[in-house]
Design a protein that fits this description.
This protein has 124 residues and is α+β, with helices and mostly antiparallel strands. It is built from three helices and five strands.
Length: 124
């Protein structure tokens, strides 16, 4: 059975989406990877599933892992990622789920999906 431990880094919404609340270390890491100021990384992100805990090192999964993987594997460029962080996915953009590895130890963390068909403007 999949049980979910409540953490202070996410909020389950009534519509089923999960708001991942960005933590300061996560925000700083993302800013360094994207070569922007940490203050440029505003808001949180809507996901279709809760965060997970890495079985390799205990780190909580986060947007930092998704950004790290996207940049390292060349899936997305920094301009695209910054656009998503500022404007959200939007209702017209289809972004597939991605298999994500821990940015700290490289352990597979699972498949993650941004929330689709929901406007982030009412959230961020």
């Amino acid at each position: 059975m999949d049980t979910h431990v409540c953490h202070n880094d996410e909020v389950r919404r009534a519509d089923g989406h999960v708001a991942w609340i960005l933590q300061d270390p996560e925000r700083s890491y993302i800013a360094s990877v994207l070569d922007v100021e940490g203050s440029d990384i505003q808001g949180d992100v809507l996901m279709e599933q809760p965060r997970k805990t890495c079985t390799g090192c205990g780190k909580r999964s986060g947007l930092d892992d998704m950004v790290h993987n996207s940049m390292e594997l060349g899936i997305h460029n920094s301009k695209f990622i910054i656009d998503v962080l500022v404007h959200g996915i939007g209702l017209d953009r289809q972004v597939p789920a991605h298999d994500v590895r821990c940015s700290r130890c490289g352990e597979p963390m699972g498949r993650f999906q941004w929330s689709r068909n929901v406007s982030w403007s009412s959230f961020i």
